[in-house]
Design a protein that fits this description.
InterPro entries: Glyco_trans_20 (IPR001830). The chain is built from 18 helices and 14 strands. The chain has about 450 residues and is α/β, with parallel strands linked by helices. The strands form two sheets. An eight-stranded mixed sheet has the order 3-4-2-1-5-6-7-8, with helices on both faces. A six-stranded parallel sheet has the order 11-10-9-12-13-14, with helices on both faces. The two termini are about 25 Å apart.
Length: about 450
């Protein structure tokens, strides 16, 4: 079996395990356990200049190869083009995208540096799997270094229609870069359709045939076990006691403007305003760990959510009831699993998402005898797989309020039927299947593309 080389913006810390591991590390756990592998990318540290030689560390059959980035390169590549330009554009938020030629040049410079550092580390039979929008040009840069290995790419976020994406300056250059990959994976058939159209418009019809949807999943059995264990533990018991019998609505998201959190808070406020029977009967817990706190748009979002939380609790709270509990610090994944099992409603309303694994985790966490209700944005990539959810348009606060009322008053028989319709897809389309399907496609792909 050939060695698997994973390339991503950030290489996980070798010491991170289980509940502390990042999402990509969890998703790739099975693939990395089955074969010798190397994980290549940014170390998470900055220096005066970007390193030219990777630092290597080995843990069993897994090698970690990392580069420190120069502070200016980090600012241009990561804070600048990747997060201020690409991220909003890929999430259909072109009005929030900020483009500068200097940032774009820095993005390409770092991808070229990755390729130059990675190429000498590759063995003849290695397969390279690059992940996400930070490293779109990497495949083309590796081809320029003479690399003829099989190269795969997976985009974890949405891909918008061609006309929208190419409104981003240099967008067509990035689409052309994707043609260097042997397999190009996206989350949904809509994403695949959009990307194929972009490649055809850019004159890469042959590459369009290499685009396919590989919906990412979770390992539902292990998450269910974690939820069952945590639900019986001390933290969940203390949390349950604090609810004093009230019904729990729960949301878990990174603090990001794509997650629709202000709209969600507005919808919850509408619930309390329109459906007064829920006063004193419901508590909404929103966990939203701070992300990209050094970016102005994210600081502004945090202020907006602080204001919403204060407004809702100020208007509706009683001395013995706080309707909204809002946290911006991280909570361990296993603890969240226990809280999800306790929650009568899982509230997942992104404005646009590649997949959204929280929705699948909520389904996996439920008690089959008394499951909760998933309230889900129709713009989450998971929506087509989870037809038992209450689907809504997250831009309409009244629709959120109505869905919450329906979920909170739904009889047990309907809750069980809806949950059962989602349990199968969540368990069958797991992370192992995602890895297996992508890698088998890459292994069976034709010989590497000529530069």
């Amino acid at each position: 079996m050939s060695r698997l080389v994973i390339v991503a913006n950030r290489v996980p810390n070798p010491r991170d395990r289980g509940a502390t591991a990042g999402g990509l590390a969890v998703a790739l756990k099975d693939a990395l356990a089955r074969r010798e592998a190397m994980w290549f990318g940014w170390s998470g540290h900055t220096a005066e200049a970007t390193a030219t030689t990777p630092t290597l560390a080995t843990r069993g059959r897994l090698t970690y190869a990392t580069l420190d980035l120069g502070r200016e390169d980090y600012r241009r590549y990561y804070q600048g083009f990747a997060n201020a330009s690409l991220w909003p554009t890929l999430h259909y938020r072109l009005g929030l995208s900020q483009f500068s030629r200097e940032d774009y040049a820095g993005y390409r410079t770092v991808n070229a540096a990755f390729a130059v550092a990675l190429a000498p580390l590759l063995r003849p039979d290695d397969m390279v799997w690059a992940h996400d929008f930070h490293v779109i040009p990497l495949g083309a840069e590796l081809r320029r270094q003479g690399v003829r290995h099989r190269l795969g790419f997976f985009l974890h976020v949405p891909f918008p229609p061609h006309a929208l994406f190419c409104a981003l300056p240099r967008g067509e250059e990035l689409i052309a870069d994707l043609a260097a990959y042997d397999v190009i994976g996206v989350q949904t058939e809509d994403d695949a359709t959009h990307l194929r159209a972009g490649l055809v418009a850019a004159g890469h019809a042959e590459a369009a045939a290499r685009v396919a949807a590989f919906p990412i999943g979770i390992e539902a059995e292990s998450f269910t076990r974690a939820a069952e264990k945590a639900a019986a533990g001390a933290e969940t018991a203390r949390f349950r006691q604090s609810l004093v019998g009230r019904t729990l609505v729960m949301g878990v998201d990174r603090l990001d403007y794509t997650k629709g959190l202000p709209h969600r808070f507005a919808g919850y406020a509408k619930l309390l305003a329109r459906f007064k029977s829920h006063h004193q009967q419901v508590t909404y817990l929103q966990v939203a760990p701070v992300s990209r706190g050094d970016v102005a748009q994210y600081r502004s979002l945090r202020r907006e959510l602080d204001e919403w939380a204060g407004r809702i609790n100020g208007q509706y709270a009683d001395p013995d009831w706080m309707p909204l509990r809002y946290m911006t610090r991280a909570v361990a994944r296993n603890t969240l699993a226990g809280f999800m099992r306790l929650a009568r409603v899982g509230l997942v309303t992104p404005l646009r998402d590649g997949m959204n694994l929280v929705a699948k985790e909520y389904v996996a966490a439920q008690n089959p005898e008394d499951p909760g209700v998933l309230v889900l944005s129709r713009f989450a990539g998971a929506a087509p797989q989870l037809d038992g959810a209450l689907l809504l348009n997250p831009l309409d606060p009244d629709e959120i309020a109505e869905a919450l009322d329906a979920a909170l008053t739904m009889p047990l028989e309907e809750r069980v039927a809806r949950w059962r319709s989602m349990e199968g897809p969540v368990r069958e389309a797991g992370a192992k299947a995602w890895c297996r399907d992508f890698l088998s496609t890459l292994e069976g792909s034709p010989a590497a593309i000529a530069a």
